[in-house]
Design goal:
Length: 500
């Protein structure tokens, strides 16, 4: 095979391995409290991977066309917990029946909730709203897409330091200090494949620790985070299973569940907008124009609809870690992402093989997140170069939106851990889930604060300070010649869907 083909396939496999972390974490946390067993958990993981592959292909071909991976989202966790805690579902005594009924309720909420993204995207309303964005407003939002995920970084590394810290140091060493060393031809192996190389080395090392009995008689938490044979994933996985729509039964619909789920849809839309802006900079593309942003959000809504039909348990969003990988490897290739979608679909049907890769200990992924989320955060802050940071107005807006974007969600999360419900706890459960979801999302809080202040404080005389002269030409599809190169639809589809 041509070396370029081998490199592309290997890069695609690296993207697949990286997105496994979130795909395993969400079902592992939620399926047991729904009443599901290990078999249900692996089936949900397979379904989530399968639909993520389809959604990634749709986004890369017809959505924003940016090299982004679409995967499961944590933005939906609070609405899902609200549905799980519904008294009518909790009354079901038999655990597996409760799992099935809860899954169907979540499916119904996702199917109807997806209409919010579909309407806001395809009607161009989200594109019109993006006219209120500026480099100053986007800097904290994109920055918080990375910074807001800090809890999935070192706190998880600390759950198994003997695996997590070597992983963190190895990735930094290979990708930064040894990136110019080329042991094979002219391919910068350490710069292109740091994730694959480091995961392979540390995973093997953790296998040795597990097999050597290092975790015998250790606390449950240590065994769960450090062992490579945890969670019964490989044993419970079938050899072959093809996910299909309505595999859990007919979805059930409830107005309260749907309103609660719409908060997750809204939050994932804002987080994805920030991730698209970051991906465009890391892929050395122009910022996506309003029309392209709307198109991407519309297709993401189709993705959430598919999540509901197949029963992935959670909705979709752009994978922040895979956006960070664009910066680490300096490869912004659409082809790589499309092939990685093929890996997701292929390994999701081959249960045992998929479960083998899914059994990588979480602290290995967390060490990667420390670097990749940090990269995305720094891309957000790089938007400030187009603004005047000697302006006290700009300093005030940036500082306040960054601080409140971290501080308010932290308050909501700590309240949740202490009281097992959010600070908003009225008699209307769906209303509680809606507000608790909105204010638990750092990019959403950052967007509310930054965009409101940026569009109400001394707007007219601050256009240059906000970076608008640089930004305004990227608002429309025809505003920059390069937009056509990056965002034109394939198969000559622009004839039927002309950019507006």
């Amino acid at each position: 095979m041509d070396p370029l083909v081998v490199e592309t396939i290997t890069l695609a496999f690296q993207n697949y391995i990286l997105m496994l972390g979130t795909s395993v974490m969400i079902p592992s946390a939620l399926v047991p409290i729904m009443g599901g067993n290990d078999g249900d958990k692996i089936r949900v993981i397979q379904t989530l991977l399968f639909v993520s592959g389809i959604n990634t292909l749709l986004q890369a071909l017809f959505g924003t066309r940016l090299p982004t991976v679409v995967g499961g989202s944590f933005a939906y966790v609070i609405p899902i917990l609200y549905i799980i805690g519904d008294s009518s579902l909790q009354r079901i005594r038999e655990p597996h029946e409760r799992f099935l009924q809860t899954m169907r309720a979540i499916q119904g909420a996702l199917i109807v909730g997806s209409s919010l993204q579909i309407i806001l995207g395809y009607s161009q309303v989200w594109g019109l709203f993006s006219r209120f964005f500026s480099p100053l407003g986007m800097a904290p939002v994109v920055g918080l897409v990375g910074l807001g995920l800090f809890e999935r970084g070192f706190p998880v590394v600390g759950n198994c330091v003997e695996i997590g810290i070597p992983m963190l140091l190895l990735v930094i060493g290979l990708s930064q200090y040894l990136k110019h060393i080329r042991p094979v031809r002219d391919v910068p192996i350490f710069e292109r494949f740091p994730v694959l190389i480091c995961v392979a080395i540390i995973w093997a090392y953790s296998h040795v620790l597990t097999a050597g009995g290092a975790y015998k008689n250790r606390p449950f938490n240590t065994q769960h985070n450090c062992r490579t044979d945890r969670a019964n994933l490989i044993y419970a996985a079938p050899w072959f299973k093809f996910p299909y729509p309505l595999q859990w039964g007919a979805p059930t619909f409830s107005a309260g569940h749907t309103f609660a789920m719409m908060s997750g849809v809204l939050v994932s839309m804002i987080e994805s907008t920030g991730a698209y802006k970051a991906a465009s900079r890391l892929a050395i593309a122009t910022p996506p124009p309003a029309y392209v942003l709307s198109r991407g959000i519309g297709w993401q809504g189709i993705g959430v609809l598919l999540d509901g039909l197949f029963g992935t348990l959670t909705g979709s969003t752009v994978s922040v870690e895979n956006v960070g990988l664009l910066g680490l490897t300096r490869v912004g290739s659409r082809r790589v992402v499309q092939i990685s979608a093929g890996f997701m679909i292929f390994f999701s049907t081959l249960g045992k093989f998929g479960a083998l890769f899914a059994s990588i200990p979480f602290p290995i992924f967390a060490a990667l997140y420390c670097i990749l989320f940090g990269l995305v955060a720094s891309v957000g802050l790089s938007f400030l170069q187009f603004t005047n940071m000697n302006s006290m107005r700009n300093l005030f807006i940036t500082g306040l939106s960054l601080f409140l974007g971290i501080s308010i969600p932290q308050y909501f999360n700590e309240f949740w851990l202490a009281a097992h419900h959010g600070p908003v706890h009225t008699h209307a459960g769906w209303f509680n889930a809606f507000l608790n979801t909105i204010f638990s999302s750092p990019p959403t809080v950052g967007l509310i604060v930054a965009v409101v202040l940026d569009n109400t404080l001394e707007v007219e005389k601050s256009k240059k300070d906000r970076g608008m002269p640089w930004w305004v030409k990227f608002r429309t599809f025809r505003g920059d010649n390069r937009n056509e190169e990056f965002y034109t639809l394939p198969f000559n589809l622009n004839r039927f869907f002309p950019p507006t």
